[in-house]
Amino acid sequence: MSRILKQDSAFPIKNAKNIIGTRNRIIHSYVNTSDEIIWTIIVRELPNLKIEIGKLLT
């Protein structure tokens, strides 16, 4: 299990499971991953992730 998913992790990222799942789908089944899904994730989710990571770094 990734350190990011553990309850007592030093990296409490809200959607860690979804992030890891998406990464796995892209890596292992990139042919079946639509550009629209990736673009939607970039537009909707990445800004929130950037804020979360920024908070962790301060």
Automatic annotation (TrEMBL):
Designated name of the protein: DUF86 domain-containing protein
Does the record's keyword annotation contain Nuclease?
yes
Domain of life from the UniProt record? Bacteria
Keyword set for this entry?
Answer: Hydrolase, Nuclease, Toxin-antitoxin system
* An annotated Gene Ontology molecular function: RNA nuclease activity
Q: Does the keyword Hydrolase apply?
A: yes
Gene Ontology terms: cellular component: toxin-antitoxin complex
Q: Which Pfam families match?
A: HepT-like
Cited InterPro entries: HepT-like
